[in-house]
Amino acid sequence: xxxxxxxxxxxxxxxxxxxxxxxxxxxxxxxxxxxxxxxxxxxxxxxxxxxxxxxxxxxxxxxxxxxxxxxxxxxxxxxxxxxxxxxxxxxxxxxxxxxxxxxxxxxxxxxxxxxxxxxxxxxxxxxxxxxxxxxxxxxxxxxxxxxxxxxxxxxxxxxxxxxxxxxxxxxxxxxxxxxxxxxxxxxxxxxxxxxxxxxxxxxxxxxxxxxxxxxxxxxxxxxxxxxxxxxxxxxxxxxxxxxxxxxxxxxxxxxxxxxxxxxxxxxxxxxxxxxxxxxx
Length: 280
What we know:
- The chain is mainly alpha-helical.
- It has a single domain (74-277), classed as MetI-like (MetI-like fold).
- The chain is built from twelve helices and no strands.
- Helix 4 (69-105) packs parallel to helix 12, helix 10 (195-218) runs parallel beside helix 11 (230-237) and helix 11 packs antiparallel against helix 12 (246-273).
- The protein is elongated.
- The model is unreliable at 1-7 (pLDDT under 50).
């Protein structure tokens, strides 16, 4: 490989992106094609196969109601990915709007918006999620909304800091000087230049959303039986650790790999977009 080609593609900078992206890609593939890939229905009961260990017929065994654990893990991936993506989008969209407006207008607007964000940010995430779920009701849709609200302050603070840096650039002053409207300045000059750090934050938020959704489902506040979720599968499996440890190991491994993949992807994107590392 020539020196120019090596400089254009630095494997050390992109290896986390590739590795994390591969893991995330597999999880997303399983989530999208769950009905086709899963060997059995995730909710059909078969009492004759209760608590059977891993075998050729059931690669990850069966649960206390005879349901195939592998099929339930695969279908739970769809739910977790849906929650992670929609919750992160809620946080990204509203957080970016709030943070950008606070930085652009400053003064009283900045004071009011960011103080509200700090109030939300001061609550522990899982406690705030439980309070929101208690207010909104127990459902997977409400879990998405609750997790999305938790993410808004983090995205808002990042968007505000990034936007303040962009506002000091000369091209923004030139846009103001020629009479460009506030809307065009924000959408054409500011938002395109703060996308990179927000995408990195979104990748990390995905993994946190998976953990929060699993925690809520574990506590009985997320997905409700018989719908499979990694969290409620862990909650069920903890009562069978002695005689059927695969009930907990399978969803636990799925959560671990998903969080690992998104964290590697986020760290890789951060390193790839860091201007201080571009020449290394």
